[in-house]
């Protein structure tokens, strides 16, 4: 899937969704504030489609390209500088998001499904490598487990994946202005594909392009082409409870917006144009997110200067 195609499709979706007047939290005006904190510098990462913060290696983030690219994950810093790259023994049909757990595993979502043309999706699990120890020449990381997923009804597109304990979750990507659907599947051994189980409709009408669950399981972030949404869940791991919540929303339009993950200062996002944004807690009206601010404070960078520096 080429960037121009994605942009065209998402632009249509954005127009439809905007016409549908997606709900915003009461008394919270839309904002376009977002800090530019970096630019992905590796030319190999042409279309960053998912991102997640490592829980074993401070300051490391894992990302990947989407369809039509090598089956490779990349370790980058928050500023976008490449740390290392690791090939995976799998095919990248349409990788759309990446998730993590507390047990040293990464989960790669082979979940892209434009026009619902595939009847089956997949999620690959790998052991998180040490980002600063490259593999021997020609070596690759094995997939330790694969989950095959089918649909309860008509196939749909989704680009958002996260996990909690023994359950995986995906969020549907709708281009018709309808509510995004939240689905789950068990992270257990399979003898046949798991049928995605719908657990809630989310108060989001923009096309969803990425998601992450906070390490404590108390907050769910969903990225869209109209900016990120933040759900404060009723209890740790009560993901289904997101369907009863009006989320906080930072309105920020970028049809190339693709991914989201939690950091101490807010939410970090990447785009298919290689930009890295920080949405701060105060942008969501939150002064106390319950996190200890351990990451360094940064100033917003000039996106035009970054692009010129990278030769874009």
Q: Please, how many helices? A: 2
Assembly level: single chain
Radius of gyration from the CA trace? Answer: 18 Å
Give the beta-strand count. Answer: 21
Roughly what is the average pLDDT, rounded to an integer? 87
The geometry reads as: globular
Structural class of the secondary elements? mainly beta
Strand content: 25-35%
Helix % is: under 10%
Instruction: Strand order, main sheet: write it out.
Output: 6-7-8-9-13
Order of helices and strands: HEEEEEEEEEEEEEEEEEEEEEH
What ranges have pLDDT less than 50 throughout 5 or more consecutive residues?
1-30, 291-296
Distance between the termini: 20 Å
Major sheet characteristics: 5 strands, mixed
Topology:
Elements: H1 3-19, E1 35-39, E2 50-53, E3 61-64, E4 72-76, E5 82-87, E6 97-100, E7 105-110, E8 121-127, E9 145-150, E10 158-164, E11 167-172, E12 180-186, E13 194-195, E14 197-202, E15 208-213, E16 219-224, E17 229-232, E18 248-249, E19 261-263, E20 266-270, E21 275-280, H2 303-310
Parallel strand pairs: 9-13
Antiparallel strand pairs: 1-21, 2-3, 3-4, 4-5, 6-7, 7-8, 8-9, 10-11, 11-12, 12-14, 15-16, 16-17, 17-18, 19-20, 20-21
